[in-house]
Design brief:
Blueprint: H1 4-13, H2 24-30, H3 34-45, E1 53-63, E2 66-78, E3 81-86, E4 117-122, E5 128-131, E6 138-141, E7 148-152, H4 156-170, H5 186-190, E8 201-204, E9 210-213, H6 216-229, E10 241-250, E11 263-271, E12 274-280, E13 300-307, E14 311-316, E15 325-329, H7 340-346
Parallel strand pairs: 5-9
Antiparallel strand pairs: 1-2, 1-7, 2-3, 3-4, 5-6, 6-7, 8-9, 10-11, 11-12, 12-13, 14-15
Helix pairs in contact: 1-3
Domain PLEKHM2 PH: 116-178
Main location: cytoplasm
GO molecular function: kinesin binding
Length: 348
């Protein structure tokens, strides 16, 4: 252990997304290759001597306790746990985290060591995995609010690969299997005979961890919400969501050497008539079982919306993925052509 193929695969995956800035400690991790990376895992991260590193992924993560702080993390999946090696800037990002993170190493800040905070979620504590729309993100849920993490991969391939690897590792766990359902077929298991509509597609793994995928009604709800934001001027049956993607809005900061602070996470939704940017809550929905009250904000909050007919041109950058797109809209002054949405949200 480990095989040459696995070491090669982990080395290939050990690349920080070019558009995201990370601390020196994580840059050091990203510079490790092959056997050095595996030895680093066993020396510094692994909690048990005989656990195996199976998968590595770089992703932005959100914690349930700090839903407004998105931080870069190196996600390591082993046969015992999921480790989130976090950017050390996260520790200083929010004053309210003193209970969540025990800062025992504050006296080492001026030393030659680059410290990272590592959050550990043991596989035995894992209860469910919620996959987001179009596999753009997934949420891992444990037994308490401290054990809920969302990985914003913004990439369906990375999400799919991680879920496959997680299922494979969970298959190794020795858990008592759930009793088999008696004479249950697919339709009686997932569908309602009264309505004919599918309920949330839920796969219960042999380790008793639930994998929950969005159903068609979520798209319908989203279409309804978008139509509502368009002030009801659109015929709902004809409204089609053509694209849903997690992206960043670039806010130009003049005189700034780094453009990292100007990246604002947004959900981009394209319909046949409009382009929308939403601030989406990726961590609070669906509500965890132990939640006493609903989240303080809605799942989708409209940040910006423009009509496609007002789109003048689209500028494309020449850099490789991720691609930068600039949408240039005509500044229409005639109020008769503008929806109420424009007046409400653009103002000055």
């Amino acid at each position: 252990y480990p095989s040459e193929f696995l070491m090669q695969k982990i080395t290939e995956d050990n690349q920080i997304p070019v558009h995201l800035h990370v601390s020196v400690s994580l840059q050091y991790v990203a510079g490790l290759k092959g056997r050095a990376l595996v030895e680093f895992f066993h020396s510094n991260i692994a909690e048990v001597e005989n656990e195996e590193l199976r998968h590595l992924m770089w992703s932005s993560v959100l914690f349930y306790k700090t839903p407004n702080v998105e931080v870069m993390a190196c996600v390591l999946l082993s046969t015992k746990a999921i480790y989130f090696l976090l950017d050390d800037s996260f520790i200083h990002a929010d004053e309210h985290q003193s209970d969540f993170w025990n800062k025992e190493n504050s006296d080492c800040e001026n030393s030659f060591f680059h410290l990272s905070c590592c959050f550990v979620l043991k596989l035995n504590d894992l209860q469910s995995v919620n996959v987001g729309l179009f596999d753009q993100y997934f949420r891992i849920t444990g037994h308490s609010a401290d054990h809920i993490v969302t990985c914003l991969t913004r990439d369906s391939y990375n999400t799919h690969t991680f879920i496959q690897q997680l299922m494979a590792v969970l298959s190794l766990l020795a858990r008592t299997p759930s009793p088999e359902p008696v004479d249950k077929d697919f339709y009686s298991e997932f569908g309602s005979k009264n309505t004919g509509k599918m309920e949330n597609y839920e796969l219960i793994h042999s380790s008793r961890v639930k994998f929950i995928y969005p159903n068609e009604e979520e798209i319908g709800d989203l279409a309804f919400l978008v139509a509502e934001k368009m002030d009801g001027l659109t015929n709902l049956p004809s409204l089609n969501i053509l694209l849903y993607v997690l992206a960043f809005q670039v806010n130009h900061v003049e005189g700034s050497a780094q453009n990292t602070s100007s990246l604002q996470p947004k959900t981009l939704i394209l319909t046949s008539s409009d382009l929308f940017l939403f601030d989406e809550d990726y961590i609070s929905y669906p509500l965890p079982e132990f939640a006493k009250e609903p989240p303080k904000r809605d799942k989708y909050q409209l940040a910006d919306g423009r009509r496609i007919r007002d789109l003048d041109r689209v500028l494309m950058g020449y850099q490789t993925y991720p691609q930068a797109l600039t949408f240039v809209f005509d500044d229409v002054q005639n109020q008769d052509l503008m929806q109420n949405l424009t007046l409400d949200h653009f103002g000055e």
